[in-house]
Design goal:
Helices cover 11% and strands 43% of the residues. The longest helix has 24 residues, at 3-26. It is globular and about 105 Å long.
């Protein structure tokens, strides 16, 4: 039996088990329920559901929409991060596009403590009460472009509507995978307070704490709801979990490793019982050893190499596995009637602050130590490594979101609903990396050369270093820094012993070397929008609904580094261990208009066999970006009820788009020579060409075609049972990427004008923005022209190419979503609920370059390459069995992720590798359980029972069996597992309380 057959068999077993439980439980259904069955059907109120701007009944949507309630959140046993709740509750949130508290390692700066959600690992639009939010500011330095859902307070959320279909025709850019519309509590009446405490009894002392208060009041013509929330999560370190420790053999850049030159590093290692060679032999001007062999002969150093040194250093105690997080937030929502039944004023406000912390091992450095440096143990220059382990790099982020929405809504002639609003958002992010090393002062402190009074002395064990990390600009060498030091701009401190292990380093020698970078990012979104929707007229088959709308949006993105964190300029790159970028400020304007129509083609009154109801919906959107051009996209939907209310079939076709990030359009470009191996590998000749890399202002939106087919079945013969199945097929093209210099040159020389990169290569000058001091650019017009140019004796430096970002990649996704829910009321045993939600990734293919084939990622785990990275399982399920009776409730839940195959970075890298292998990653299954009790209100008993009236207590355990993530060391070699997909916490105990009065 092949792998796909096995997966399908497992899926059928999961589905069959769920239905079997339902049938068994239905045997216990109370006899009296038959009377309920005979009750008249309830007509559902019409309202706007995500996926359409036309008010419809909740069961009349032609698109796949899942509405998650607060009870659904509670079923996950989670309470601190919205991303984790969505990932667990809806298995189609899969892949590394879903990244949050687990991003605590070397890639932490890409999200800066934020949380990104992604349906099927595709671009996903996040809305708050139906309107856009600003992107995270980290994109201003090349980080991810995403909305940080970690800034949305969980206690303030009423429900979440998840549209799992392309929706750019309704909402605009980014709605390729779908839409997540978060709806806050806006009409609360009363007061509710609650809190939760959770802990793991494994190593690491992991804790979660949260509390909230929601209060609201409704009076005729006015309503007000406010909330406040707070939460804290402690971090985990790699050493706290068995799958991620030890992490050895990765680096030999640690204190004690030396060599004569950088080319031979490392060749010797300090004897393990020595803190510094200065404790065993004279150093500096008094050194007696001639070189490293003399130190080895004296027994001070031992001959060594990379692997034995690297194997002695364990990174895991120093590196975080999950973030530390602290959050607080407040919300406000009010509605005031201005004209009864005609016009209301509404105001929404949100303030959120999210602080996070992650850590890496101390910054490793290497340096050439000159003769007479005070701690050099030889009479020759040496190449030495230094890593001050007690000062790990600490990444501290603080994100602040301020949002205010104000508008009017109302009705016209009781037929049309209209709304107009202004939406303002300001997202401020500050980022600091602590314990980075200031390069000018590090070099000065290594060289020493002063006495304690600041007098120049050859081999002196003190150094003059610049005050306030402020070396004059434009200086890049030790000699220049030494010449620029004066008593006015410097301080005297002990020289640093770079040869010492951490225990042998004088902390005072690091006083003006260890510092912190300071970065600030601002992302602002301003939006004015308006829409009107309703039934235009009554047709022969029923009311025809329509909606039209218009919007104007301005996005502003700013990034500002400190002077020493810049990529260019007189003080560029002076922090060792920080991230570098230049100041970035861009804005863009977006104008959009859309229309939508819903037409009943066949109605029940027509009595057509097999066509009880047939509805057509269509939408069209025009969106113009001031920097990325115009997109025009349609969407069509069909809703069909063949017979009765039992079965509903639906189908959609849509086109979607995703606008390029502003940093991709206007971020920095670099200019220089190609790598030394490029020209020899492509043309067989020595030399280097000239290249530019980076952003591209000519990028276009990526586009996607989406087809979906679905069915919802609620048989009258089995009351309370609903089964839904949805198939989706997405083909996205023109994703942003870069081809690589080697690929560009090979393609242009082989294909000439037929090459997709023909406009990126020229002879004599640059293809775009040519240098006026150089000759005119010569286009490539035929295959082999570049080879002929070099064979004629011309220098490779006459070849100019741009390897900037371009619209180049594509991906194809085929998936199947299945949901089963069965409500079973019984007379004697209470109410049961059986539910399961599953996703099958049938295909997930990615093509990085036109010259490459599409590579399959479904059923695999990958990382560090291109395409659908992360875990993309063949199938994933979340199943629950719930029960409640009177004041009691209980829940049993299972998360199942099918086995996958670890192929490292995947794609062409894996396909052409001689070392990577296909490594199976075992299936993952965890069970959760909880029990809740609600104390009755208004009791006559005194004492504690009366005091607790209205309180609900819940105790639970997540991951009862204490399962750990399965290992995938090729893909995730930093921690050995994908902790964004598989929770590293282990068994988690929790207790929560809610009190409403």
């Amino acid at each position: 039996m092949n792998t796909q057959s096995v997966r399908i068999s497992r899926a059928l077993l999961c589905l069959g088990a769920s239905l079997s439980l339902a049938v068994i439980a239905s045997a216990q259904t109370a006899p009296g329920s038959a009377a309920t069955d005979r009750k008249a059907e309830v007509t559902l109120e019409k309202f706007v559901v995500t996926g359409s701007n036309i008010p419809i009944a909740a069961d009349a949507a032609a698109v796949p929409v899942t509405i998650l309630s607060r009870q659904d959140f509670e079923a996950t046993g989670l309470d601190t991060n919205l991303l984790e709740i969505l990932q667990k509750r809806m298995p189609l949130f899969a892949g590394n596009g879903n990244l949050g508290v687990s991003n605590s390692n070397v890639g932490a700066n890409s999200t800066a403590g934020g949380s990104q959600v992604s349906l099927r690992n595709l671009d996903t639009l996040v809305l708050l009460n139906g309107r856009r939010l600003p992107e995270n500011g980290s994109n201003a330095r090349g980080g991810r472009s995403f909305v940080d859902v970690n800034q949305i307070p969980l206690a303030a959320i009423q429900s979440i509507e998840v549209l799992t279909d392309g929706a750019s025709a309704i909402y605009g850019s980014a709605a390729v995978g779908g839409v997540v519309n978060i709806k806050l509590r806006t009409d609360f009446n009363g007061v509710e307070a609650g809190g939760r405490y959770a802990f793991s009894n494994r190593k690491g002392d992991y804790r979660e704490k949260s509390g909230y208060l929601v209060a609201g009041a409704k009076r005729p013509g006015i309503g007000l709801t406010v909330s406040g929330t707070w939460s804290e999560i402690t971090p985990l370190y790699q050493a706290d979990r068995p799958f991620s420790t030890p992490i050895v053999g990765r680096t030999a850049t640690i204190s004690g490793a030396i060599s004569p030159t950088s080319a031979s590093f490392p060749s010797a290692f300090l004897r393990t019982d020595l803190l510094s060679p200065s404790r065993a032999t004279p150093t500096g001007t008094a050194a007696t050893a001639a070189d490293i062999p003399a130190l080895i002969a004296a027994g001070i150093y031992q001959t060594s190499a990379f692997q034995p040194i690297a194997d002695s250093f364990d990174l895991s105690p120093l590196v975080t596995l999950t973030l530390e997080s602290k959050k607080k937030a407040a919300t406000l929502a009010t509605s005031i009637t201005l004209i009864p039944d005609k016009m209301d004023l509404f105001i929404e406000g949100l303030f959120s602050q999210s602080d996070s912390f992650s850590q890496l091992a101390a910054q490793p450095v290497t340096a050439t130590v000159p003769v007479n440096s005070p701690y050099n143990p030889t009479r020759s220059s040496l190449f030495a490594a230094f890593r001050y382990v007690p000062a790990p790099r600490q990444f501290v982020n603080s994100a602040e979101l301020k949002r205010i929405v104000g508008g009017l809504r109302g009705k016209i002639l009781d037929k049309f609903q209209w709304e107009a609003a202004y939406n303002y958002n300001a997202n401020k992010l500050t980022n600091s990396v602590k314990n980075v090393l200031y390069n000018p002062n590090l070099q000065l402190a290594i060289a020493g050369g002063y006495d304690a009074n600041g007098n120049a002395v050859t081999g002196g064990r003190y150094a003059r270093v610049f005050r306030d990390f402020g070396a004059p600009g434009g200086l890049t060498t030790l000699a220049q820094w030494q010449a620029a030091v004066t008593p006015a701009n410097s301080v005297v401190q002990p020289a640093i012993d770079i040869f010492a292990r951490p225990g042998g380093v004088d902390p005072a020698s690091l006083a003006n070397i260890l510092g912190a970078s300071a970065l600030q990012f601002d992302s602002v979104l301003k939006q004015v929008d308006g829409k009107i929707a309703g039934n235009v007229f009554e047709g022969p088959t029923g009311p025809i609904g329509a909606a039209v709308g218009y919007g104007v949006t301005k996005e502003i993105l700013t990034g500002m580094p400190d002077a020493n964190s810049r990529s260019s300029g007189p003080t560029a790159g002076r922090w060792n261990g920080a991230t570098f970028f230049d100041p970035f400020t861009r804005d863009r304007d977006i104008v959009s208009a859309y229309a939508e129509v819903r037409i009943p083609l066949v109605s029940e009154s027509m009595n057509i066999p097999g066509l009880r109801v047939l509805e057509l919906s269509a939408a069209y959107r025009y969106e113009d970006y001031s920097d990325a051009g115009t997109s025009k996209v349609p969407k069509y939907g069909l809703r069909w009820k063949p017979m009765g209310e039992d079965l509903t079939l639906r189908a959609t076709y849509s086109e979607a788009f995703s606008a390029p990030a502003m940093f991709s359009l206007y971020g920095p470009t670099t200019q220089g020579f190609t790598a030394t191996a490029v020209i020899p590998n492509v043309f067989g000749q020595n030399g280097q060409g000239q290249q530019r890399t980076g952003s591209n202002p000519n990028l276009k939106p990526s586009t996607a075609d989406t087809y979906s087919l679905g069915a919802v079945y609620s048989p009258k013969g089995v009351k309370g049972l609903t089964v839904s199945v949805d198939y989706i097929n997405i083909d996205q093209v023109e994703l942003v990427g870069s081809a690589g210099v080697t690929e560009i040159l090979r393609s242009v020389d082989a294909l000439g004008t037929a090459s997709p990169y023909i406009n990126q290569v020229r002879i004599n000058n640059w293809p775009t923005n040519p240098d006026p001091l150089l000759p005119a650019a010569q286009a490539i017009t035929a295959p082999g022209q570049l080879s002929a140019y070099l064979r004629a004796g011309n220098s490779p430096q006459g070849i100019f190419l741009t390897d900037s970002l371009i619209n180049i990649a594509g991906q194809k996704v085929k998936a199947l979503d299945v949901s089963v829910n069965y409500e079973i009321p019984t007379r004697e045993y209470g109410r049961f609920n059986v539910g399961t939600t599953g996703t099958f990734f049938i295909d997930y293919q990615f093509q990085a370059l036109p010259s490459q084939r599409y590579y399959e990622y479904a059923g695999h785990v990958t990382n560090g390459g291109t395409g659908a990275q992360g875990v993309v399982p063949g199938m994933r399920w979340f199943t629950t069995l719930g029960w409640n009776k009177g004041a009691w409730s209980a829940l049993l839940a299972n998360t199942y992720i099918d086995e996958v195959t670890d192929i490292g970075p995947g794609g062409i890298t894996f396909a052409t590798s001689t070392t990577l292998t296909r490594r199976p990653v075992e299936a993952y299954s965890i069970w959760d359980a909880s029990v809740g009790y609600t104390f009755a209100k208004g009791g006559t008993d005194g004492g504690w029972r009366r005091m607790l009236g209205g309180m609900r207590l819940t105790v639970g355990i997540n991951n009862i069996a204490d399962e750990m993530p399965p290992k995938s060391p090729q893909a995730f070699n930093e921690s050995n597992a994908d902790v964004s997909t598989y929770s590293p916490i282990g068994r988690l105990w929790y207790i929560s309380a809610q009190y409403r009065f």
